[in-house]
């Protein structure tokens, strides 16, 4: 069990999922932390999902990508995904800004097409990330009312 209070709190939030989902969330998180070693990992335990954004500053508007953990899957969100080139047709959604990919497994983050999308999404703020401190996890919000984290 982590000794850092924030790390312990995030571990407790993830532990509310089934062991299989907790493993998937942890693996996705580990891969994204390796891809974004500087900046802020912003944690929001919302009504529908546990969302973890990766940002160059300690504010939601600086988040460029995030994962959201639902009871049965993890989704990778590109918060400015509408304008990303997507020759492989991976991005889902038709909102004004956000696009996503439902991950079948954490290994999907290693697929070349997904890695390209991550690179493109993060590139506009490469200098901001480089100037940021080593990745710091910040709990931004925990909603009192939440859906069950395990499938019914």
Automatic annotation (TrEMBL):
It comes from the Bacteria. This is YdhG-like domain-containing protein.
């Amino acid at each position: 069990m982590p000794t850092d209070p924030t790390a312990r709190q995030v571990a407790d939030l993830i532990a509310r999922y089934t062991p299989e989902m907790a493993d998937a969330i942890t693996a996705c998180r580990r891969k994204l932390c390796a891809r974004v070693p500087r900046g802020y990992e912003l944690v929001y335990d919302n009504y529908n999902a546990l969302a973890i954004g990766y940002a160059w500053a300690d504010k939601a508007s600086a988040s460029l990508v995030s994962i959201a953990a639902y009871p049965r899957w993890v989704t990778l969100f590109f918060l400015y995904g509408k304008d990303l080139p997507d020759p492989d047709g991976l991005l889902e959604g038709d909102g004004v800004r956000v696009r996503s990919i439902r991950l079948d497994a954490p290994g999907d983050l290693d697929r070349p097409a997904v890695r390209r999308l991550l690179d493109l999404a993060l590139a506009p703020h490469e200098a901001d990330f480089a100037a940021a401190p080593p990745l710091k996890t910040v709990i931004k919000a925990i909603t009192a009312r939440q859906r069950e984290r395990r499938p019914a």
